[in-house]
């Protein structure tokens, strides 16, 4: 009996109690505030509903699964608008309510898939337009404006605020590849295993809507590959191959001094150490090229403001103005394969190695990793 019941349960990844609380709280606040906004918008008019039932289903998507393609802003606004228009038209043209409801659902789904705004709660919007009774029918196409778009925009605005405040990027979008150099070469993480074209071809053959962003799917598969490599990567750790006598910079060090320090030691990165001897950032040659205006220091206030807006720093500025912070780090006992994953996923060349209290004990470079791989291959410790 139990095996059969387990087969009926969806095979979903585990979710922490914190995430369940976050989603539940978001939906509670979203529906409550949307209803209050609706009450204020329509006033005492009894003919207009302040809040319609399909918004409950939209809240599930917007707050519980904000990464879903079905929960994105165009999905809720486009899907609900299309479904409301089709539903009102079907109710006006087709006398039989069941035939009108079926027609409204079928056409709405086809249009939403074509226009890439599939949103399951929109099906309930179409049914509400057809089966909502005299009060809804009397609204005609005004039903599209209120309550459909009014509720949709209010709930979407709340989802935008709540999700981003609680640590969920919304609208969801794939993180830009930090290793894109603008050349024909793929990023390092894309040079192992399958190619992006392979994934696209498989998705075409699959020919079904997947409730996961295509870029998210590729990221999941590539991380799975990297972790399988880590599992097979042996027992090498970062402290066996890291550099221990590390040249560092302070946040108050001038950009010019940082450049001279790199040149004199023939290095390309400087961990930045704060007053408490803890790592607070890293400055690299790329930062010196990209974030510093080497043409010359601006001589007036307006020029300096324009320079700040452009994201550049003055040559006489400090390391603090151009360093990368927070910085991706490693720990001494971290498996070298895990460090390789961090290099590949983030497009990095250096990883400061820190203790549990964030104090610097070394730095690991891609060259160190290559040496470690060769040493492991030759059987040397």
Written account of the structure:
The structure is a single chain. The longest helix has 26 residues, at 17-42. The chain is 53% helix and 6% strand. The mean pLDDT is 85. The strands form two sheets. A two-stranded antiparallel ribbon has the order 1-2. A two-stranded antiparallel ribbon has the order 3-4. Helix 2 (17-42) crosses helix 3 and helix 3 (54-64) runs antiparallel to helix 6. The protein has three domains: 13-165, no CATH class; 188-231, no CATH class; 238-378, Roll (CBS-domain). The chain has helices at 2-8, 17-42, 54-64, 73-93, 97-114, 121-131, 134-139, 142-165, 196-206, 214-231, 255-265, 285-290, 301-309, 336-346, 366-378, and strands at residues 269-273, 279-284, 350-354, 360-365. The chain has 381 residues and is mainly alpha-helical. A hairpin with a 5-residue loop joins strand 3 and strand 4. It contains 15 helices and four strands.
The proportion of strand residues reads 5-15%
Helix content: 40-55%
Enumerate the spans where pLDDT stays under 50 for 5 or more consecutive residues. none
List the total number of helices: 15
Overall average pLDDT: 85
> What count of domains describes the coordinates?
3
How far is the N terminus from the C terminus? 54 Å
Please write the string of helix (H) and strand (E) elements.
Answer: HHHHHHHHHHHEEHHHEEH
**Strand order, sheet with most strands:** 1-2
């Amino acid at each position: 009996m139990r095996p059969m019941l387990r087969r009926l349960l969806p095979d979903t990844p585990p979710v922490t109690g914190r995430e369940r609380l976050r989603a539940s709280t978001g939906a509670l606040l979203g529906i409550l505030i949307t209803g209050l906004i609706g009450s204020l918008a329509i006033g005492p008019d009894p003919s207009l509903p302040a809040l319609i039932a399909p918004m409950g289903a939209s809240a599930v998507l917007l707050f519980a699964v904000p990464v879903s393609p079905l929960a994105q802003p165009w999905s809720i606004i486009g899907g609900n608008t299309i479904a409301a228009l089709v539903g009102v038209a079907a109710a006006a043209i087709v006398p039989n309510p069941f035939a009108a409801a079926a027609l409204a659902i079928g056409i709405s789904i086809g249009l939403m898939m074509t226009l890439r705004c599939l949103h399951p709660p929109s099906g309930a919007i179409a049914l509400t337009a057809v089966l909502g009774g005299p009060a809804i029918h009397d609204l005609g196409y005004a039903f599209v404006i209120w309550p459909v778009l009014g509720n949709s925009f209010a709930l979407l605005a709340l989802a935008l605020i709540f999700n981003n405040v609680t640590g969920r990027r919304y609208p969801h979008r794939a993180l830009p590849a930090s290793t894109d150099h603008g050349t024909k070469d793929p990023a390092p993480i894309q040079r192992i295993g399958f190619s992006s074209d392979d994934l696209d071809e498989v998705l075409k053959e699959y020919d079904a809507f997947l409730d996961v962003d295509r870029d998210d799917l590729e990221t999941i598969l590539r991380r799975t590959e990297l972790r399988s490599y880590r599992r097979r990567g042996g027992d090498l750790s970062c402290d066996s191959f890291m550099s221990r006598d590390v040249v560092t910079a302070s946040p108050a060090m001038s950009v010019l001094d940082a450049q001279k320090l790199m040149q004199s030691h023939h290095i390309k990165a400087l961990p930045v150490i704060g007053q408490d001897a803890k790592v607070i950032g890293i400055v690299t040659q790329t930062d010196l090229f990209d974030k510093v205006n080497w043409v010359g220091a601006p001589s007036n206030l307006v020029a300096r403001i324009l320079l700040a807006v452009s994201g550049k720093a003055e040559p006489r500025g400090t390391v603090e103005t151009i360093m990368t912070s927070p910085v991706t780090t490693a720990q001494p006992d971290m498996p070298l394969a895990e460090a390789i994953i961090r290099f590949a996923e983030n497009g990095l060349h250096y990883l400061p190695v820190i203790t549990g209290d964030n104090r610097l004990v070394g730095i690991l470079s891609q060259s160190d990793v290559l040496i470690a791989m060769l040493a492991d291959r030759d059987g040397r410790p």
